[in-house]
UniProtKB/TrEMBL annotation:
<keyword id="KW-0460">Magnesium</keyword>
<dbReference type="InterPro" id="IPR045864">
    <property type="entry name" value="aa-tRNA-synth_II/BPL/LPL"/>
</dbReference>
<keyword id="KW-0030">Aminoacyl-tRNA synthetase</keyword>
<feature type="coiled-coil region">
    <location>
        <begin position="65"/>
        <end position="92"/>
    </location>
</feature>
<keyword id="KW-0479">Metal-binding</keyword>
<dbReference type="Pfam" id="PF01409">
    <property type="entry name" value="tRNA-synt_2d"/>
</dbReference>
<keyword id="KW-0067">ATP-binding</keyword>
<dbReference type="InterPro" id="IPR006195">
    <property type="entry name" value="aa-tRNA-synth_II"/>
</dbReference>
<keyword id="KW-0175">Coiled coil</keyword>
<feature type="binding site">
    <location>
        <position position="256"/>
    </location>
    <ligand>
        <name>Mg(2+)</name>
    </ligand>
</feature>
<dbReference type="InterPro" id="IPR004188">
    <property type="entry name" value="Phe-tRNA_ligase_II_N"/>
</dbReference>
<protein>
    <recommendedName>
        <fullName>Phenylalanine--tRNA ligase alpha subunit</fullName>
        <ecNumber>6.1.1.20</ecNumber>
    </recommendedName>
</protein>
<dbReference type="InterPro" id="IPR022911">
    <property type="entry name" value="Phe_tRNA_ligase_alpha1_bac"/>
</dbReference>
<dbReference type="InterPro" id="IPR010978">
    <property type="entry name" value="tRNA-bd_arm"/>
</dbReference>
<dbReference type="Pfam" id="PF02912">
    <property type="entry name" value="Phe_tRNA-synt_N"/>
</dbReference>
<keyword id="KW-0963">Cytoplasm</keyword>
<dbReference type="InterPro" id="IPR002319">
    <property type="entry name" value="Phenylalanyl-tRNA_Synthase"/>
</dbReference>
Amino acid sequence: MEARLKELQAEALAKIAAAGELKELNDVRVAYLGKKGPITEVLRGMGKLSAEERPRMGALVNEVREAIQSRLEEKAAEIEKAAIEAQLATETIDVTLPGRPVATGAHHPLTAVIEEIEDLFIGMGYEVAEGPEVEKDYYNFEALNLPKGHPARDMQDSFYITEEVLLRTHTSPVQARTMEKNEGKGPIKIICPGKVYRRDDDDATHSHQFMQIEGLVIDKNIRMSDLKGTLQVFAKKMFGSDREIRLRPSFFPFTEPSVEMDISCMMCGGKGCGTCKGTGWIEILGGGMVHPNVLRMAGYDPTEYQGFAFGMGPERIAMLKYGIDDIRHFYTNDIRFLQQFKRA
């Protein structure tokens, strides 16, 4: 038995020395040290030995196993080292070469404008509210003083899914939902950014899908002067401290009185140019005092609570701010257009 063990050790070490790959080493390990290997068979035959021979033979078996295992590990390390050296020889790295620049992205100009507006109003104490883009007719129209058959619905040609479900045409439903959730109590001060949808032909100034940001303030003793002051701060922060604003009477079903806001042209300073069509003013957004009917439907008492609301299109603001002449640039993913807005 002792001679057999010495013979197995010599065979295993010879095969280990001849191995050139890790797979070959693993085959040797399984063949000699595995459960079905010859060394294991020797161990099973130790029951036939006398009590005096068993300890000596057990120690010899362990010596053979350890010798084979130790040489397997040494040979594996040698093969791995040789493989690394061969790879380094064929893949030499020249550390003197200039590094490869990593292309970095940047905020989309529309995203940048939206975040700038959000930061401005958050700084004024507003919260950002969101709502579903697939909306109920009730919240999109009826809760905003636009009952079925109201002629103003024709101003917003809508994508209806069913008779009572549609893609929202503005973010005003978020205002209606927020007022309803508050159950006629406490102040509200929110802005509602999000995508809206209208059946429109896409051209340089129109799109069937666009962004909108609306604002809503509900509290006691809210006046039109509060709306004007808020919009004045917005205009000066977004377009420069020398911007002036003017409010013109208008009509929106959910506000009364309603106004449209113009800012003095940033190109000519109000003197008149092609951008402002010679008027010195550029229309920027609409707003007004929340209609008493809207307050009542949301559970507020119009004699106790008042409010103002406004809505703007971030695309229009971005186009004026950056001098963009076609709204489709925001959606066509032209890398040349987007690269112009990378920040240093």
